TrEMBL record, chain A:
<dbReference type="InterPro" id="IPR012340">
    <property type="entry name" value="NA-bd_OB-fold"/>
</dbReference>
<dbReference type="Pfam" id="PF01796">
    <property type="entry name" value="OB_ChsH2_C"/>
</dbReference>
<dbReference type="InterPro" id="IPR002878">
    <property type="entry name" value="ChsH2_C"/>
</dbReference>
<protein>
    <recommendedName>
        <fullName>DUF35 domain-containing protein</fullName>
    </recommendedName>
</protein>
<feature type="domain" description="ChsH2 rubredoxin-like zinc ribbon">
    <location>
        <begin position="17"/>
        <end position="51"/>
    </location>
</feature>
<feature type="domain" description="ChsH2 C-terminal OB-fold">
    <location>
        <begin position="53"/>
        <end position="110"/>
    </location>
</feature>
<dbReference type="InterPro" id="IPR052513">
    <property type="entry name" value="Thioester_dehydratase-like"/>
</dbReference>
<dbReference type="Pfam" id="PF12172">
    <property type="entry name" value="zf-ChsH2"/>
</dbReference>
<dbReference type="InterPro" id="IPR022002">
    <property type="entry name" value="ChsH2_Znr"/>
</dbReference>
Automatic annotation (TrEMBL), chain B:
<feature type="domain" description="Thiolase C-terminal">
    <location>
        <begin position="252"/>
        <end position="384"/>
    </location>
</feature>
<protein>
    <submittedName>
        <fullName>Acetyl-CoA acetyltransferase</fullName>
    </submittedName>
</protein>
<dbReference type="InterPro" id="IPR055140">
    <property type="entry name" value="Thiolase_C_2"/>
</dbReference>
<keyword id="KW-0808">Transferase</keyword>
<dbReference type="InterPro" id="IPR016039">
    <property type="entry name" value="Thiolase-like"/>
</dbReference>
<dbReference type="GO" id="GO:0016747">
    <property type="term" value="F:acyltransferase activity, transferring groups other than amino-acyl groups"/>
</dbReference>
<dbReference type="InterPro" id="IPR002155">
    <property type="entry name" value="Thiolase"/>
</dbReference>
<dbReference type="Pfam" id="PF22691">
    <property type="entry name" value="Thiolase_C_1"/>
</dbReference>
Amino acid sequence: MEIGVLRRDGRTDPFFDGTAAGRLVVRRCEACDRWFAPDASGCPGCGEEDLGWAEASGAATLVTWTILPKEPPAFLALVELAEGPWLHARLDGVERADLREGLALRAAFEHPDEGESYVLFRPWTERGSVR
Amino acid sequence: MGTSIVGLGMTELGRVYGRSPRRLAADAVRLAAADAGLALGDLDGLLVSHGMSGSPGIELADTLGLRDLRLLALVNSYGATAGAMVSYAAMAVLNGSATTVACVFADAPLKPKQSAGSAYNRDAPAGKAEWYGFGGMTAALGLRSVNSHYALAAQRHMARYGTTSEQLGAIAVATRRWAAGNPLAQLREPITIEDHQRSRWVSEPLHLLDCCLVSNGAVAVIVTSADRARDLARPPVHLWGWGQGHPGHRKERGSDFGLATGAAASGAAAMKMAGVTAADVDVCELYDCYTYTVLVTLEDYGFCAKGEGGAFAASGALGPGGSLPTNTGGGQLSAYYMWGMTPLSEAVIQARGDGGRRQAPSTDVILVSGNGGILDHHSTLVVSPHAKGA
Ligand SMILES: [Zn+2]
């Protein structure tokens, strides 16, 4: 997958520390026990603007998807982390026939030669990745 | 005492080059004042809305030479702005802070030799692209366009309720049939469901014919009291009700993103103020950035049950001769894309009986919608050729 080069932006760096180590690190409000996407600007529960970072399990389910007409097709999605927040994401290792609400997914990490590591989501069963 | 729309000004719309958004806006306000039989000096209020161009702002008052205004503001609720502006103008007239308020939208995102799509999308940089931060990562992975965000919404509705692409196509076909009767429409050639199905994927499940146009131009309306409206040049279009809905979809477990929108709260508020129900509505002029937006809005307004918008559209209700004439000028899908001014301008034309070949048979109650962001913001107006309560 050729995606260009990912760089840090100073605002979401702990997320990329996480991807480099194969961990899904997202935002969390300790006070409210609520999880958010890495680009969340604050907690609507308590107004905290300086959210903490915490490691999520990496387990997720498929909320909805769209397919870009590329060769090969790009499967883009909203996924729901087990901890609650939704992430915009790209799916990997899926085919059209797999796509359904609630499809079990798991974060997978890519480590390109140049630039930051990034996360994709792959179908997942108890026995491990489907493909 | 009530309020009315008394002037409508529309510049050339579409691939109109050589005029800045500010110039276009000024032209539209002048046209609206002339249409109403007013001088520019009669205006004591100006509400301004801009699109992707980020211009004009309130300096438009200076461009127009307006003096001693009692109301002047830049308003922004994205695609819900037109309805919101008109309601703020009406409230100002009702409470006496202004008497005659122009509301204008202008945009010029199209550049010569540039595709319409590129005006609204985040293109990949040339060469080896560099992307920054988490947002840059999702863009790098392919999520770069508004089209894809609406595709995510539409796909969720399809998966949950069984809505089909052919049902979305029925909206595109009905809207194009209306456009055939509108000399101002950019696309007037008839299309079929097969044409819709064959049109290229933009971001699946959205085909090209599910997506609106991109247009340059400006549209203005003038709001004043119903009393004053009686003495002006054109038949008044009376404002019966208005509402807004900003659901604040959180992107987290339990969100109804894609399934329901702010139209539910907004429509209920506007219809309550107007003293009507969905059953009383003769014509709908709905914000149709995508066919799907029309479908979900019809559901949220209560014209059919939740999840049945697809079947409702496929029944033929929306097109010429149907039970609920909708987007009678061809909407944003086929006529012109002036954000919320597209449905509002057609509502004014229909209420005045100026629709010509496309005039709807009955226009006593017209519902107008606006939608902004990714289904984040909604506004509704109820308008009529008749004074409220008359
Ligand atoms: Zn909190």
